[in-house]
Amino acid sequence: MGRFKWLFLLCLVLTLGFVWFSGSYLHKSLAKSKVNLASYQETRTSEMSEKNPHVKRSEVLAEVQRTTKPPQIVNITQNGKILTKIQTVAEVKGNRTDLESSMVVGTRRNRTEATPKPADTGTPAPPTVPPDKRSPTWFLRDDTYTRSKCPSAIRKNPDKVPSGKFIPDIPVLMWSEHITPEEYARLSQFKMSYGWDGMSYEDVKNCLRHLNTSAHRYMFPGWAPDHAGCIRCAVVGNGGILRGSGKGKEIDGHDFVWRVNAAITEGFEEDVGKRTSFYFHSVNSMKKSAAHSRLSGFRDRLPPQSKDTVYTSISHGRRDYVYFDAAISWKPVKSGRDRSKVHEPPSEYGVKPASTKFRMLHPDFMRYLKYHWLNSSRGYGRFEGIYQPSKGAMMLLAALHTCDVTDAYGFLTADHAQYSDHYYEKDWQKFVFYVNHDFKMEMKLWDELDKAGLMALYRGNKTEATTSPKIN
User: Domains in the chain, ordered, with CATH?
Assistant: First the structure.
């Protein structure tokens, strides 16, 4: 019996060991099966949404949400480049946009994950902006205007420019090639007018797609960057100093005539001329100037319209981009404060204007003017949100950077108090200094540039017709 007892105990031990080993193996197998099943379901969910367009969006979304990992910050790496920092949503298969474009999906191969897509349709995942390009004083470079052979051009006389102001190869104009994911990311750092902060990629692209010819790269129609001779420009402001000046014929004698805001010539041809080669404006300034001129008795005011007029935008933001797109596409403005109530295209530029009649200042150029030429203390602190250089100042400095010879008329001078605000006003109006512009700084700059020989500033004839009424 003792022998059978030990044999029984040995069998019992072997049986218990086998049961324990089998249970452990079964537990591990079940766990592994669950992992494989989850992975298969995750991959299958992505493939179903891609191959079968009739799969309900709610079913796919529910599956993604069920397998969502805890939020974390990671870097998307594509082709060896870090694109951006994102919040993890799910890990799926395939490099594509899924869930009716509500997500940007990465690949298993690169171990990337999904991130919420930017709200604006057509917006690419923004690349990371290199540290050196995050500064508001970092600008693109463009050598277009450095090729001038005229000895009087500003680029031939850099020693005459006030220290620290001038960048010879600063880009002046913007065209279709400037809308790239990299440029969109860089310029989205800066507020409008100095960048694209708050604007969608689609709005910028829809506007710039029209500026796609060689004509849009250069300010002057029919002239080459390496032209022979000197391009002479008359830059005409709206100051009361022009009333009674008799400068009309002299102004029209230039190669190009630049105007801004109201730009009224009819009835004042003897003093301001009648030609308009370039009309500088924003949509806001154009409409406000039209309203102001109506108060002076000029009804149905439109910007200058002739076959030679080029419309140059000093854009403030989305309003200008959408308006430009509508005008050139000849379609109604469908959104914003200029939305058409009668379903008609904007008519300020004429009927079906050609795209070659439009130019747009580059945001880098406008930011350059602010920080290098017109860096007013008002641009910081209390008035930072409303200060910007005046439209006339931007126009005059754009001319200085593109023309070879620049003659300025109708701009503020030290004796401005002797003249009415605008030359076209019937009744004398005092010039008022507002906080959104630093006219005193601009006036000082015009005086310096005139004395340096970089431009010629008309300082008035001091006739009775131009002076303010006498105060007894």
Answer: 39-117 (no CATH), 131-466 (3.90.1480.20)
